[in-house]
Write a sequence for this structure.
C-alpha cells in the first residue's frame, strides 16, 4: 500500500472528526466564526424582524438587525441580561452590563456591554442596524451572552419606542420596550 493510499482515508477520518467536534462545540461554529440569532416580536407576539450575531476570530461580535412595522426615526436598541420576551418585556431585565459601567456609548463612564447604536427606521417602518462590539462574546467568557453551562440561552435584544441619547443612565431615556428577541445559539 502506498503512502497516498494510507493518507487519503486518514484525512477523511480527521475531517469527519473535526466536523463532529464543531457540531458539539456550543454556539454554532462555522467557518471559524461563532453565530447566534434572535426572532424579534412586538408586544402582541407578532414576528417583526430578526437579529444575527457573528463573533469573528478576533473576538469582535458583528450585530445585524432587521425590523419592520416600527415608527420612523431612531429607536434605542440594547442587549438585555435575561432571555425572556414575555410582553411587556420587563422580564428581560436590565441592560447586559457585567462590568458595572454606566449607560451610553457617549458616556465617559460607560458604556454598558449591551449598549448599541440607535436603530434607524425609515419612512416605511423598516429598520436596519449593522454594528460591531467587543464588549460581549458568544463564546465562553465573563462577557458571554449565553449561560454555556445550562442551555446556551441567556440574553435578549430589546427595541425601545424612543431614541437613545447615549448618555443618560440607566436606559438612555429611550422609552418603553416595544419589541424583543431571545438570543439563541446557532
Amino acid at each position: 500500500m502506498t503512502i497516498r493510499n494510507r493518507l487519503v482515508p486518514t484525512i477523511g477520518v480527521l475531517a469527519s472528526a473535526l466536523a463532529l467536534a464543531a457540531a458539539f462545540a456550543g454556539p454554532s461554529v462555522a467557518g471559524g466564526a461563532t453565530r447566534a440569532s434572535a426572532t424579534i416580536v412586538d408586544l402582541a407576539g407578532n414576528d417583526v424582524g430578526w437579529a444575527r450575531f457573528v463573533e469573528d476570530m478576533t473576538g469582535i461580535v458583528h450585530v445585524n438587525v432587521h425590523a419592520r412595522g416600527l415608527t420612523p426615526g431612531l429607536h434605542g436598541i440594547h442587549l438585555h441580561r435575561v432571555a425572556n420576551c414575555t410582553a411587556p418585556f420587563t422580564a428581560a431585565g436590565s441592560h447586559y452590563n457585567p462590568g458595572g459601567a454606566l449607560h451610553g456609548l457617549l458616556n465617559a463612564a460607560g458604556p454598558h456591554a449591551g449598549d448599541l447604536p440607535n436603530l434607524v427606521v425609515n419612512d416605511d417602518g423598516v429598520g436596519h442596524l449593522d454594528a460591531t462590539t467587543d464588549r460581549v462574546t458568544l463564546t465562553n467568557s465573563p462577557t458571554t451572552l449565553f449561560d454555556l453551562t445550562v442551555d446556551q440561552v441567556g440574553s435578549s435584544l430589546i427595541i425601545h419606542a424612543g431614541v437613545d441619547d447615549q448618555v443618560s443612565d440607566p436606559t438612555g431615556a429611550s422609552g418603553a420596550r416595544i419589541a424583543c428577541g431571545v438570543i439563541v445559539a446557532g
Summary: The beta strands are 28-30, 33-42, 47-55, 61-67, 73-75, 77-80, 119-121, 127-133, 153-160, 177-185. Confidence is low (pLDDT under 50) at residues 7-32.
